[in-house]
């Protein structure tokens, strides 16, 4: 499934029609909701869903910000095998 922004992702989840194991989100997103905001909402309402964050921005993203939500960061650009490994690792956490 694909959502164009955080609110759309939450609407997909809120429908309850889909079994979602992992959300892959960029840190920076449109519509006034960051990836960290989305992670906060997932943790609050959907504890069973794993999350993997990605970012092409080189500014420092603090590990404590990600640890709070049980997510890891995959830097862009990345290779397909790096993405696959990050997805597998996130699902296995």
Report on the structure:
This protein has 93 residues and is of the alpha/beta class. The protein has four helices and three strands; from the N terminus they run αβαβαβα. It has helices at 6-14, 35-45, 63-67, 80-92, and strands at residues 22-26, 50-55, 72-75. The chain has a three-stranded parallel beta sheet with strand order 1-2-3, sandwiched between helices. β1 (22-26), α2 and β2 (50-55) form a beta-alpha-beta unit. It starts with 5 loop residues before the first helix and ends with a helix.
The global form is globular
Span between termini: 22 Å
Q: Count the beta strands.
A: 3
How does the helix and strand content classify structurally? alpha/beta
Radius of gyration: 13 Å
- Poorly predicted residue ranges: none
**Can you write the helix and strand succession as a string?**
HEHEHEH
Number of helices: 4
Q: Estimate the mean pLDDT confidence.
A: 88
The share of residues in extended strands comes to: 15-25%
Largest sheet: 3 strands, parallel
Helix content: 40-55%
- Strand order within the widest beta sheet: 1-2-3
List the keywords:
alpha/beta, 41% helix, 93 residues, 16% strand, single chain
Topology of helices and strands:
Blueprint: H1 6-14, E1 22-26, H2 35-45, E2 50-55, H3 63-67, E3 72-75, H4 80-92
Parallel strand pairs: 1-2, 2-3
Helix pairs in contact: 1-2
């Amino acid at each position: 499934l694909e959502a164009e922004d955080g609110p759309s992702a939450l609407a997909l989840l809120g429908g309850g029609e889909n079994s979602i194991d992992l959300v892959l989100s960029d840190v920076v997103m449109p519509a006034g909701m960051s990836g960290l905001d989305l992670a906060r909402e997932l943790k609050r309402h959907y504890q069973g869903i794993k999350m993997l964050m990605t970012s092409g921005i080189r500014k420092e993203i603090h590990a404590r910000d990600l640890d709070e939500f049980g997510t890891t960061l995959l830097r862009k650009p990345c290779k397909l095998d790096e993405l696959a490994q990050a997805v597998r690792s996130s699902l296995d956490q």
